[in-house]
Design brief:
With 295 residues, the chain is an alpha/beta fold. It contains nine helices and seven strands. Helix 3 runs parallel beside helix 4. Bound molecules: nicotinamide-adenine-dinucleotide. Belongs to the short-chain dehydrogenases/reductases (SDR) family.
């Protein structure tokens, strides 16, 4: 294997800690790996360390075997205490007893496993309730617990705040607007189906719309405390959620202006932008969708 390229200090998340829920598979796995690659200690939180593709090395093992740092935490996002325990693990690993980054990514698919979902008249109440519990209550739990921890921490500069070069015309940040820094950054995983309706996904779309407005509200409430909260809304990615391929009829209705579908790393890059490079971005809803919602 080729040696990993070194990371500049301005791109590094060394010394920062993160919790990523749903880190065993799909987008969460990619986000966790990217955070660890940049030097963060990553708590990979999921129901099980085994990926949906059981042939894959568990995320935390891959991180550690490549020289990164992190651990697995058994978390069910519907159980607040399990999320609090994962955050405690991150805080214990932090050189400054902090949780810097919380990514509430875990989610469950919007299509019923055992019956076709042709619209809300075919959605089973127990199915819808589970979607709300995992996708919305899970994000509420993760955000609630992260904010409670972050409020106990002092603001710390992000790498982007250090990257000030007055010779190139950057204003001298400290001198101009006082001290910079953030108590922490929360990224919640929405979906473009929280921004616009998703075909035959009433419960899923409602849960993701809830995630968006929960996050906006948290952003307003805690901006004064320098806690950032943003939503990333992936569009139609090449990887499917859950274990079932998307119904071909529904897949045909999922169009992306960009010539190809998104990859997990496209979503991971958006998360890195928010938690590392964008200290003043809060309350934003970032579509990562190849232009689908612009159409
Ligand atoms: N893949 C896409 O195209 C896409 C598009 C838009 C939004 N999203 C969102 O991105 C997020 C991740 O999706 P994905 O495609 O990686 O899905 P995935 O099914 O590949 O992975 C989801 C992960 O979450 C975990 N998880 C599920 N329920 C959990 C629970 N109760 N507690 C803890 N962990 C739990 C699963 O074990 C799994 O590892 C979800 O919130 C999803 O709604 C995905």
């Amino acid at each position: 294997m080729a040696a990993l390229r070194p990371i500049s200090s301005l791109s590094s998340l060394a010394g920062r800690t993160a919790v990523v829920t749903g880190a065993s598979s799909g987008l969460g796995r990619s986000i966790a790996l990217r955070l660890a690659r940049l030097g963060a200690y990553v708590v990979c939180a999921d129901l099980s360390p085994v990926s949906r593709d059981a042939s894959l090395v568990p995320t935390h093992e891959l991180i550690v075997s490549n020289g990164g740092s992190g651990a697995f935490a058994e978390v069910n996002v519907t159980d607040l205490a399990s999320i609090e325990a994962a955050i405690a693990l991150a805080v214990a690993a932090s050189p400054r007893a902090r949780l810097d980054i919380m990514v509430n990514n875990a989610g469950t698919i919007g299509h019923q496993a055992d019956a076709p979902n042709l619209g809300i008249h075919t959605e089973q109440p127990a199915f819808a309730q589970n979607v709300f519990n995992v996708n919305l209550m899970g994000v509420w739990n993760g955000t609630h617990a992260a904010v409670r921890q972050m409020l106990t921490q002092e603001p710390e500069k992000l790498p982007a705040d250090e990257d000030v070069d007055v010779r190139l015309g950057d204003p001298e940040v400290e001198g101009q607007d006082g001290p910079r820094g953030s108590r922490g950054s929360i990224v919640n995983m929405g979906s473009i189906h929280g921004m616009v309706g998703g075909p035959s996904e009433a419960a899923y779309s409602a849960s993701k719309a809830g995630v968006i407005n929960l996050t906006r509200t948290v952003a307003i409430d805690y901006a004064k405390d320098r806690i950032a909260a943003n939503v990333v809304c992936p569009g139609y990615c090449a990887i499917n959620m859950g274990s079932k391929p998307t119904d071909p009829e529904i897949a045909a209705r999922r169009l992306t202006p960009w010539p190809h579908r998104g990859a997990a790393r496209d979503v991971a890059n958006a998360v890195i932008y928010l938690v590392r490079d964008a200290p003043w971005v809060t309350g934003s809803v970032l579509a990562v969708d190849g232009g689908t919602t612009a159409d």
